[in-house]
Amino acid sequence: MLCTRCRIRTAVTDEGLCTFCSGTRPPLPDDSTAVSGPGGWGVGAWPRSPVALSRAVTVLLGVVVATDLFAIATGLRVRALWDRLATDGAMDVHSPDGESAERLYLVSGNVQGLAFLVTAVVFIIWFHRTRRNAEVFDPSVQRMGPGWAVGGWFVPVANFWFPYRVASGVWEASAQTRPDGGWRTLPRTPLNLWWGAWIATLLAARVTGRLWERAEEPAEIARAAGLVAASDALDLVAAVLAILFVRAVTRMQTDRAAHSLAPAPGAPEHIAP
Q: What is the pLDDT of residues 126-157, one digit of tens each?
């Protein structure tokens, strides 16, 4: 029978819990040595460092911000051209400059899509890594299994909520400790702001995308282009908040590991994100 809490390990207690969720997991033998991983972190029974992945995610999110700025600039240019056609009858949108603006707008959309795809892949890898680490830090506060750190993003409708539940467990398990070993409650502001912006971005992108596809008259095209630019601006904000979230979780996990887990021989006592 599977554990009634995590649903991923075999239950071993009368309450239907596994060794992780019941807190009965035996400690490592005194003479055991964890294999050293990147940055001095261990593997297997030890958490794995999310630092390198967090740096990659941060860089890629910066690329997303840049592509959003590019899309906003080209989108506002296209909007201005169609607005002039709708209000003054100016045919600039059909001029060589107008056609060039339209091509740049198309390129910006393609670049945005590529940047988002690559960033999403690396972000999910980082997200899964931190969820695995959270299992080592404190499995009792995990609301969903590690597999949902990946699969939760691809379940229709549920993807508006499942990843947040995973992230909430990661945040709680990774909370920093006081010097005396006591727990310090940290506000979830970075998590909540990022998730709120992400959901708003998803909804805005769907609505503005449909408006853009259905727009036919110059005034409709101009209005749709402006709304798409606003959606891109919201995506930019979500990317910045994602950077803050990634850095916060990575910093908490490095501090948590340095405080709670004995480092491998010769490894530094603290690894900065």
A: 999 999 999 888 888 888 889 999 999 999 99
Distance between CA atoms of 76 and 64, rounded to whole angstroms?
Answer: 18
Residue 21 to residue 139: CA distance in whole angstroms: 6
pLDDT of 193 above 80: yes
Q: Which residue has the tokens 């590529």?
A: 114
Distance CA 109, CA 107 (A): 5
The dihedral built from the CA positions of residue 96, 102, 103 and 108, taken in this order, carries a sign that is positive
- Decide if 94 contacts 125 (C-beta within 8 A): no
Largest CA distance in the chain: 82
In the predicted model, what is the mean pLDDT of residues 217-228? 94
What's the rounded Cα separation, in Å, for the pair 61 and 56? Answer: 9
Q: Which of 74, 98, 252 has its CA nearest to residue 174?
A: 252
Residues 6+ apart with CB under 8 A from 259: 177, 181
pLDDT at 268: 42
CB atoms under 10 Å from CB of 262, counted, come to: 14
Q: How many helices (H) and strands (E) does the chain have?
A: 7, 0
Find the mean pLDDT for residues 164-179: 85
Which pTM was predicted?
A: 0.78
Can you tell me the distance from the alpha carbon of 59 to that of 68, in angstroms, rounded to the nearest whole number? Answer: 14
Most trustworthy range by pLDDT among 10-24, 86-100, 103-117: 103-117
Query: Could you tell me if 206 and 172 are in contact, meaning their C-beta atoms sit under 8 angstroms apart?
Result: no
| 270 and 255 Cβ atoms separated by less than 8 Å | yes
CA 69/CA 59 separation, integer angstroms? 15
